[in-house]
Amino acid sequence: MKPLLVTLGDAAGIGPEIIVRAFERGALAQAVVIGDVGVLRRAGSPMTARIEAPTDVARLPPGCLPVIEPPGLPAGLAGLPAGRVDARNGAAAARCIEHAAGLMRAGAAGALVTAPLHKAALAAAGLPYPGHTEMLQALATPAGAAPPPVRMMLANPELKVVLVTIHLALRQALDALDFDAVLQTLRIAHGAAAAWGLPKPRIAVAGLNPHAGEGGLFGREEIDFIAPAVQAAQAEGIDARGPHAPDTVFMRARRGEFDLVVAMTHDHGLIPVKYLGVEEGVNVTLGLPYVRTSPDHGTAYDIAGTGRADPASLIAALAMARRLAGPG
């Protein structure tokens, strides 16, 4: 398959460290880092090579980490302290993502894996995006076109959860929920699973309210638009079921009753997945014109630069990217 692209993430976080450790464990074979050579050397990379294009990886000697340095990176990143928000690191992370997204749109790589960035650093750099998902959505939008609908999925070997709303304050997320949002999420989840070789996924829909509203006793969202969206999806041939009580549906999916769970809000859906452990958790963006995965943890400023960062989730993200991208 074509090489994978791995973006640096926030240089003050653990992204560079877990990239180097994943490389040392052989998980970055046929992968190219989009980032800063100095930062990677500071993180412990013994041998790095600047290359111009992903295809150049084939000519490098073994044990050499291939790096594409995008134009426009701020100078002196390797001299900035670990574990602190800095606008220069936010700008660098964004520049790496922009360059990687351009290579993906050009068909130059097989999939994109993103190391963690820091939302406060992005904001300090003047970027209007709350996270990777929204930024990649904007970068995938042709001029003058509507943004492609995207959704976040967090997955591990036991549970896969797709979110209707992502990085919104809870009050805003409640306002963003409606029939169209739920139905669109079901369509995206169904289509993505079909691309992975699961043409008829069993999709459970978690209710929003306790006991999925208890027939309207604890809220009407299930009656007014969640259940109607499920029924509309069923009419399209999607095996959607629910809404189910959110306090038990994840347990039922983990036991094998469902292949995917659709949850209404960010924490509603991600707490159960992360409770099972971040080591094998992978964040997948559904709806982009290419495969994008990432670890399911953040920048971990509190341990950045200490040598304690665990690359397991990044390694899982690399493995899933290869699996979803296929042999092409």
Overview features:
328 residues, Isopropylmalate Dehydrogenase, 2 domains
Q: Would you mind describing this structure in some detail?
A:
With 328 residues, the chain is an alpha/beta fold. The protein has 2 domains: 195 residues, Isopropylmalate Dehydrogenase, CATH 3.40.718; 114 residues, Isopropylmalate Dehydrogenase, CATH 3.40.718. It is built from 11 helices and 12 strands. Helix 3 packs across helix 5 and helix 7 runs parallel beside helix 8. The longest helix is centred in the first third of the chain and has 19 residues. The mean pLDDT is 94.
Detail the topology: elements first, then pairings.
Elements: E1 4-7, H1 15-24, E2 31-34, H2 37-42, E3 48-50, E4 65-68, H3 87-105, E5 111-114, H4 119-124, H5 132-139, E6 151-156, E7 159-163, H6 170-176, H7 179-195, E8 203-206, H8 221-235, E9 240-244, H9 249-254, E10 260-263, H10 266-275, E11 282-286, E12 292-295, H11 312-325
Parallel strand pairs: 1-2, 1-5, 2-4, 3-4, 5-12, 7-10, 8-9, 8-10
Antiparallel strand pairs: 6-7, 6-11, 11-12
Helix pairs in contact: 3-5, 7-8
**Annotation, overall tally of beta strands:** 12
Helix/strand order, N-terminal first: EHEHEEHEHHEEHHEHEHEHEEH
The chain-level mean pLDDT equals 94
CATH homologous superfamily (4th level) name of the largest domain? Isopropylmalate Dehydrogenase
Low-confidence runs: none
CATH C-level label of the largest domain: Alpha Beta
- Major β-sheet profile: 12 strands, mixed
Domain count: the total is 2
**Widest sheet: strand ordering:** 3-4-2-1-5-12-11-6-7-10-8-9
CATH architecture of the largest domain: 3-Layer(aba) Sandwich
Distance separating the two termini: 5 Å
Counting DSSP H or I runs of 4 or more residues, the number of helices is 11
Percent strand equals 15-25%
Q: What is the CATH T-level topology of the largest domain?
A: Isopropylmalate Dehydrogenase
Rg computed from alpha carbons, rounded to a whole number of angstroms: 20 Å
